[in-house]
């Protein structure tokens, strides 16, 4: 459809499936099957006995353009999340969302320059405590407001309440959201992974993929979006 984009967000659990085996190839295969224009992946991990540059493999399979947020760096590698896109990314920035002494958190903002128009994209992986997410949700709302035109915010929000801080702070700027349950992948009951969409963009449809239960502890969330 002209002026439309397919986006995908997925916490890949470091490429380690429920069988405790590291296999980035099955992550690539499942993500590529959805033919998404823009992919946001959380928990990309190169530490330990893993590939030195997992983003290189993911980018080679999923899109020419990428932006990365490394939240943890160690002598044997790094950990974080990334955006991979078929279309150019402009004005990309990484924003610190860390809260006190808790695990570092970031958000990536970028402009996706698609043939049907520009899209402001914010991707993140939020913290586990309620107070932490309260601060982070307020910051995400600011980042969503900072651009012009359609905006999408997606990622792993770790917010299992239907009307928690994330939803309450984003609903004015981004009234549409996905509702699929994604965690745990073996028997999904929580909507941790979401895609939020703001006017003039419209969320056409969204879905998950149960095949991911053998690949990660999260299911991916996929959506078709019309830019307006």
Separation of termini?
12 Å
Alpha carbon gyration radius: 16 Å
Which sequence of SSEs, written as H and E, runs from N to C? EHEHEEEEEHEHEEEE
- What characteristic shape results from the CA principal axes? globular
Q: Which structural class do the helices and strands define?
A: alpha+beta
Spans of at least 5 consecutive residues whose pLDDT stays below 50 are none
- How many individual β-strands? 12
Q: For the report, how would you describe the main beta sheet?
A: 6 strands, mixed
What is the typical, i.e. mean, pLDDT? 92
Number of distinct helices: 4
Q: In percent, how much strand structure appears in the residues?
A: 35-45%
Largest sheet, order of strands side by side? 3-4-2-1-12-11
- The amount of helix comes to 10-25%
What does this 3D model show about the protein?
With 228 residues, the chain is α+β, with helices and mostly antiparallel strands. The strands form two sheets. A six-stranded mixed sheet has the order 3-4-2-1-12-11. Strands 5-6-7-8-10-9 form a six-stranded mixed sheet, with helices on one face. It has four helices and twelve strands, in the order βαβαβββββαβαββββ. α1 packs parallel to α2. The protein is globular and about 45 Å long. β3 and β4 form a beta hairpin.
Name the features.
228 residues; 4 helices; six-stranded mixed β-sheet; alpha+beta
């Amino acid at each position: 459809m002209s002026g439309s984009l397919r986006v995908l967000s997925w916490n890949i659990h470091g490429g380690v499936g429920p069988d405790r085996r590291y296999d980035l190839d099955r992550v690539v295969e499942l993500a590529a099957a959805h033919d998404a224009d823009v992919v946001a992946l959380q928990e990309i991990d190169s530490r330990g006995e893993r590939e030195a540059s997992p983003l290189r493999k993911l980018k080679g399979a999923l899109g020419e353009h990428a932006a990365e947020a490394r939240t943890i760096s160690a002598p044997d590698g790094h950990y974080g999340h990334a955006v991979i896109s078929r279309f150019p990314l402009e004005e990309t920035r990484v924003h610190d969302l860390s809260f006190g002494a808790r695990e570092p958190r970031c958000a990536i903002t970028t402009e996706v320059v698609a043939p049907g128009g520009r899209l402001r994209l914010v991707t993140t992986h939020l913290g586990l405590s309620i107070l932490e997410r309260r601060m982070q949700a307020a910051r995400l709302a600011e980042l969503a407001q900072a651009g012009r035109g359609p905006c999408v915010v997606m990622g792993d929000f770790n917010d299992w309440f239907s009307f928690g801080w994330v939803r309450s702070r984003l609903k004015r700027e981004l009234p549409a959201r996905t509702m699929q349950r994604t965690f745990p992948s073996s028997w999904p009951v929580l909507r941790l992974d979401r895609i939020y969409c703001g006017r003039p963009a419209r969320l056409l449809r969204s879905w998950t993929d149960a095949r991911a239960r053998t690949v990660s502890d999260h299911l991916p969330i996929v959506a078709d979006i019309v830019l307006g």
